[in-house]
Amino acid sequence: MRLSRYFLPVLKESPKEAEIVSHKLMLRAGMIKQQAAGSYSWLPLGFKVLNKIVKIIEEEQNRSGAVQLLMPTLQSADLWRESGRYDAYGKEMLRIQDRHERDLLYGPTNEEMITDIFRTFVRSYKDLPLNLYHIQWKFRDEVRPRFGTMRSREFLMKDAYSFDLDEAGAKRAFHRMFVAYLRTFYRMGLVGIPMRADTGPIGGDMSYEFHVLADTGESAVFLDSDLLDKPIPAVDTDFNGDLSPIFNDWTSLFAATDEMTDEATFRASVSGNKQMAARGIEVGHIFYFGTKYSEPMGAKVTGPDGKDVIVHMGSYGIGPTRLVPAVIEASHDDNGIIWPVSVAPFEAVLINLKAGDAGTDAACEALYAELNAAGLDTLYDDRDQPAGAKFATADLIGIPYQLILGPRGLKDGQAEIKHRKTGERETLPLGSAVARLKGLIEPQRRDKV
RNA sequence: CGGAGUAUAGCGCAGCCUGGUAGCGCACCUGCUUCGGGAGCAGGGGGUCGAGUGUUCGAAUCACUCUACUCCGACCA
Q1: CA-to-C1' span, A29 to B21 (A)
Q2: What is the per-residue pLDDT across A105-115, written as a single tens digit (0 to 9) for each?
Q3: What is the pLDDT of residues A126-166, one digit of tens each?
Q4: Of the listed ranges A34-38, A191-195, A221-225, the one predicted with least confidence
Q5: A245 plus A139 within the same structural domain
Q6: Residue A10 is assigned to a structural domain of this protein
Q7: Are residues A282 and A389 in the same domain?
Q8: How far is the CA of A16 from the C1' of B18 (A)?
């Protein structure tokens, strides 16, 4: 993409509405524009990151055996009356009437609707286990939206719903999602720590929130620091096999939010040098809720013995529009964002230090073509701007690698690569620049690990 | 929903206390010069001062009402 033809409205100063660093940087980098409280337009750069995150989620959901579909944003109130939640849900739920004065709502979640789909089509235990998911916009009329897209009213959510014959089956489904989530966050360059969460009236140990550690996290969390070094289940993990060893390994170490524990318990449970009190951003939540919806809504299958069985369900959420700021909170410096390669809007930025100079232009054009041919997603800064402005923009929008080309190096046939994360610079012959970048970038895509 | 604030050009701000026909920086447009860390000089465009009502000869400025947005708290992917 040529920057001169792109739409990248970067700001030198951050709008005063922004309080936390990710919000400021998303505004300054031209990723989002607020349209109302808790409602945002996603500008091209932000949308590109959001889509990369969504793609990773889809790949890992599919790998785990979940099947994607898409449900509407507007739902009939009748469905929610069946589960009893139409009255139980508070003012967070946006209620609407259509022209016939029928009650509708903008879905804050989809348990009722997916249960309706299930009961319509699934009749036999032979069709289980089943896990259906979608990635759709939700609306929750939060009393106080804040922190940009971290806590917005309209937000994108991946929600998966598992259906099993009994609790044992539901547990296996739960483990599959648990492992998928570990992989999903890892692939985004994050460490998503599973933490015991409130199970509500169901009880048991099948409710985990995944948190990304960040100073600006909304929850106080306590964990065993060994969790940060645990190996992530590999790409060839058998999702049809027994995943309980992985689950048991991860959950054997202490990790909980302040809602689930207190500091004294934490101090007593974890050895001193491994105690880690931090703050976390909740980026995912998986939980088992049994027959809470299947019972009242009549979601059942015929079992092996010919008798009807109410199915056991679980639901599994991830917030992509929250993950974008979460990545930024976890990875930035004074100059701007530092994207992990796997979610970066562009993998490299080619900086032409003297646009308009025939020699530099020609060399950049050649390199740009070479970068594209090598399959590297590249932004080419071909604008007629001072060098400093280009460096500042490149740093701000956080592209992992800058390939810098100017008359000075060019006369010796040299290009320069700057690593955004470390600030390291290397000078190398023009002819080897693309191969070098490819070698740096490909392993960091994390698409084969 | 309780408490506290803010609203003046695309963004960041001054002006308001002590009413007198709106200003600065950045951004934008034109020209020239620059060109390895947010360029320099010259010229230029852009604002019913959030909305409404009132006080006054006169309101960005004073009063009242409303709206939007932000922050703190309780709630949540």
Answers
A1: 40
A2: 999 999 999 99
A3: 999 999 999 999 999 988 898 999 999 999 999 999 999 99
A4: A34-38
A5: yes
A6: yes
A7: no
A8: 30
- Within residues 410-449 of protein chain A, the ones with CB less than 7 A from nucleic strand B are 410, 416, 418, 425
Indicate the average pLDDT of chain A. Answer: 94
Same domain assignment for residues A301 and A355: no
- d(CA A290, CA A267) in angstroms, rounded, equals 33
Domain that includes residue A412, residue range = 346-445
What is the total count of domains within chain A?
2
CA distance A109 to A321: 15
What integer pLDDT is reported at residue A90 of this predicted model?
84
Q: Do A279 and A242 contact (CB within 8 A), yes or no? A: no
Nucleotide whose C1' lies closest to the alpha carbon of residue A148: B70
Q: How far apart are CA A80 and CA A300, in angstroms?
A: 18
Phi, psi of A146 (to 5 degrees): -165, 175
In A 24-43, which Cβ lie closer than 7 Å to strand B? 28, 34, 36-38
Q: Which residue has the closest alpha carbon to B26 C1'? A: A12
ipTM of the complex: 0.94
For residue A156, report the phi and psi dihedrals to the nearest 5 degrees: -90, 140
Whose structure tokens read 């009961």? A119
**What is the three-state SS of A315-351?**
EEEECHHHHHHHHHHHCEECCEECCCHHHCCCCEEEE
Mark the nucleotides of strand B covered by protein, meaning any atom under 7 Å from a CB. 1-2, 11-13, 25-27, 34-39, 68-77
Q: Report which of residues 185-224 in chain A place their beta carbon less than 7 angstroms from any atom of strand B.
A: 209, 218-219
Q: What is the CATH number of the domain that holds A146?
A: 3.30.930.10
- A109 CA from B33 C1′ (Å): 60
Please state the separation of Cα A93 from the chain's center in Å.
Answer: 24
Question: How far is A17 from A352, CA to CA, in rounded Å?
Answer: 34
Confidence grade of residue A216 (pLDDT, cut at 50, 70, 90): confident
Q: Is A5 exposed, middle or buried (0-12, 13-18, 19+ CB in 10 A)?
A: exposed
Say if A90 falls within a structural domain.
Answer: no
CA angle A185, A187, A193 (to 5 degrees): 25
| pLDDT exceeds cutoff 80 at A79 | yes
Rounded mean pLDDT, A357-374: 96
Q: What is A252-277 written as a DSSP string? A: TS-EEETTT--HHHHHHHS-GGGEEE
